[in-house]
């Protein structure tokens, strides 16, 4: 969550070049916040960073002190990098200057403005520079004060060059400062809002004027008078929160002191990369908590003023709202989105009001602002599981039970990437009860072959279409929202020619997890191969929206199962979530087993949105690249022929305003739909009339299609 620097940064900037023209310049002897006053004695172009020229070696940038005893003359590194500004503006090109001598990374709107005041400055003493898989050629700089820059280079060579120089600068200033660090008795932990330069840096002090954001300084030996003043500033529950934060901050300070007290050499030193990253991330977490407390304090202060009417942002934060707004409205985000100047802290869990305590209520839902909606319903997103219908229909063509279960696992692992395209996490519309979605696919018969026996053919991104309907299979799909509390969606698809059908019911359960939002997909699906009399029961992984305060991205996680009782084959699929430190994203592993003989017949590993490698028990291997698989387009009736409760027709006004960029109008249309749903639900409660779905009926704990293929045959 960027404040001063990135708030001002989001508006414009130079996008004239998407590549960096970084260069190293030998700096003068006197430290300065800008290169404008520096005496530049030499300048060398950096090769491979956007055009041509020759690049000085990385070692020349991080030059060691001169042997003649003179003052250290350090070069500066300059160039264009892409910087993540905020959720709305995304990545923007900015001109960066690494001042090695001052230990500061500054950035400007463009090269022409580098002699003006920088848009932001990051102290590199003790900073951590790490690589990231969230975006191509991405690196992240974590300052010791909790500030963070997410940057992208033009290519891998340029990224590595910046990483090398930034790490060298961080290490040098860390080693220098450790020699002159004051005793722990006189130290205090300073938590700065994002976008505020570190006041400890000489380069940053002149930029901290009267208009700078407030600095939270944690003091651990308060006088009784100071404690009373602090208590008066944080009334009620907020004072307890502040006291708890003080305890945590004290523990974090002890952690930092313990790390800095480690010896300079040996198996574990104060410069260990994991320990430095632990210091930076713990400080960043406390900084984020400080920001949240500050927002809550402002909300309580405004709510206590006479005649104050809380605004939309206060309701989103879940603090005291007007009685006329029900908790149900707050949970569904119908009070509008945040104003443009508001912070991005809108992923909140809302407590029940006093009225709600009188009767049991569903668990709180995660409130999400309208501008991150995906312009389609969750029901339509489920249809993307069938984006490769040729692989689904090929399951029944397997010659043996072993081949069929392996074909199903191959289809299953390739079924998720099409529904989650794009680096930025987007949330589909929550379906309205009674909402339906219909579509179909036509698959040429000559393309329906098991993957293991199919001949090799060149990969193609073209949409495969059947010219003659008689030479194609037709796969039909219908989905319906059968319940609002809890939210349960059902979908069913069938191919009569192949005597294959899938029936699935899913209960989506959201959970707020600090910096993430988790969605558990509770329920199961059943694939029926009527020609072979086989039923494959499968479950679905959980989905997680990560980094919700910076660049939201989606990953899948959890252990799922696939089993066929008739044949004795089963499969275990594990979607691995990214570890906190290092590791790859979107990893998946799978194992297919014949239970009666306890034999593993197939193993798979890779990325569910990338390359998957399958190894069979006969020693053969096969690689499937999900990015090159042909995607079959959905066939959907035009809007004028759709019923009022069909997804695209139902949400068409919300979608239209989102495409126009009119967030307020889209939010109002969304509110009207959800309010209509609540009114109809109250009517049914008063009349004691249960909701009756159109296409699905409840059987035990599950839901099945009213006229499934296995009953028709």
Give structural notes.
By secondary structure, the chain is α+β, with helices and mostly antiparallel strands. It is 25% helix and 27% strand. A hairpin with a 4-residue loop joins strand 15 and strand 16 (488-495). Helix 6 runs antiparallel to helix 7 (273-303) and helix 14 packs antiparallel against helix 15 (663-687). Residues 1-8, 10-21, 24-74, 182-234, 309-367 and 454-462 have low confidence and may be disordered. Keywords: Cytoplasm, Lipid transport, Lipid-binding, Phosphoprotein, Transport. Belongs to the OSBP family. Residues 74-171 form the PH domain. It is found in: Cytoplasm.
Low-confidence stretches: 1-8, 10-21, 24-74, 182-234, 309-367, 454-462
Please state the oligomeric state of the protein chains shown.
single chain
Q: Which class best fits the helix and strand makeup?
A: alpha+beta
Question: In which range does the helix fraction lie?
Answer: 25-40%
Shape: globular
- Our measurement of the CA-to-CA distance between the termini, rounded to an integer number of angstroms, reads 57 Å
Q: What kind of sheet is the major sheet?
A: 13 strands, antiparallel
Strand content: 25-35%
Task: Report the strand count.
Answer: 28
